[in-house]
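haha ok so turns out i had the wrong file open the whole time. this is the CORRECT one, sorry everyone. sequence first:
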Amino acid sequence: MKDNLFSMREFGNFELNIPLKVVDFKINQPKPKEGFPKFVNGVCWIQYELALKGEKASAKPNESL
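then structure:
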């Protein structure tokens, strides 16, 4: 019996969208926190400051970094 082992990889650009409920998560600034984005073990980390509950968020969507 022969093993059918192979590796399929695709390289190139991709986009990952993670929808967040705006009721639960309000980003308070248009740019990520200082030192972000950063890559750790091939994973891109991005951190934003969230508005406190009841506080009005001030960032606008689609602002350039």
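The mean pLDDT is 78.
again sry for the mixup
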